[in-house]
Design brief:
The chain has two domains: 11-75; 125-276, Endonuclease, Chain A (2-Layer Sandwich). Helices cover 56% and strands 16% of the residues. It contains nine helices and eight strands. The chain starts with 15 loop residues before the first helix and ends in a 5-residue tail after the last strand.
């Protein structure tokens, strides 16, 4: 239910430092007079000075807080406008609804946004399993090298063939072909459990197109290396998070040097155990 009146001007909603300071000042002023420590005028002056000091301290505190916020907002041109607009709309919402599911939901979304920004600060963008925008955009803008590991050890060759033949797979493969046309070299390691005719056909298609296709038997490497990753120029990386059935449930796009280097090391390890693919005669 919408609130019928605002609490603006309600002294109880004022900062507790101000309320407490003024209250103590008045209490001291009255106490000095009541206990005959000083006359009324001097007590009034002392109380006024304490009140002034309280307000000065509060002003300094508020100024520091405003300065820190202003400095943070100045770091980005779009940040000031959006944060100001968000704060104004949220403030209006809080005034309209009090102790309501609306305000609870608003607070929950603020908390969720904070967590997402915190994740971004670590240099990782996380998206749902079907959202491959970063995989595609990074492949379209790569300059020199693509290094990838495709883990099909937990999936059938039919699942793998369907992914590459599906909308995302076709778009990704086209981006691979365009990258190679620009002079980009691609090395892709396929981790597999059993070779089949359809898998061999897929690998041969990529090999003929110019991809350095390599094979790695799943039993030849530690299960922790059964991963799906792509590295672009060893500067950006994509990593898939999979469930127990080998289905991708989350896409992680890494730009932090630490995470990229971790996956570069994983690729090097898997490559050292892999073999070049050649179609049997």
């Amino acid at each position: 239910m919408a609130r019928e009146k605002s609490d603006r001007g309600n002294i109880l909603s004022t900062d507790p430092i101000t309320v407490g300071g003024v209250f103590v000042s008045l209490l001291v002023s009255v106490g000095l007079v009541v206990f005959d420590v000083t006359d009324g005028i001097l007590g009034f002056i002392i109380g006024l000075l304490m009140t002034t000091l309280t307000l000065l301290v509060q002003h300094m505190y508020d100024s520091k807080a405003r300065s820190e916020l202003d400095l943070a907002l100045r770091r980005s041109r779009w940040l000031r406008h959006n944060v100001t607009d968000l704060a104004r709309k949220t403030g209006d919402l809080v005034e309209m609804y009090e102790r309501n599911d609306i305000t609870k939901e608003a607070e929950a979304r603020f908390v969720a946004l904070t967590r997402e920004i915190d994740a971004l600060s670590r240099g990782t963008i996380e998206r749902a399993g079907g959202d491959y925008r970063d995989l595609l955009s990074a492949t379209a803008s790569v300059k020199n090298t693509i290094q990838a590991i495709t883990n099909i050890s937990q999936r059938s060759d039919i699942d793998t063939e369907q992914w590459w033949a599906g909308p995302i797979g076709r778009t990704y493969w086209e981006a691979n072909l365009e990258a190679m046309a620009r002079g980009v070299s691609i090395s892709r390691i396929f981790i597999y459990a059993q070779m089949t005719d359809s898998l061999a056909e897929l690998l041969e298609t990529q090999r003929k197109a110019g991809v350095d296709v390599r094979l790695l038997l799943s039993s030849a490497v530690d299960p922790s290396k059964h991963i799906n990753i792509t590295l672009w120029d060893a500067e950006r990386a994509w990593e898939a998070k999979m469930n127990a059935h080998g289905a991708i449930v989350n896409n992680l796009y890494h730009l932090h040097e630490h995470e990229v280097n971790r996956l570069v090391a994983d690729f090097a390890t898997c490559r050292s155990f892999s073999q070049p693919f050649n179609l049997p005669a």
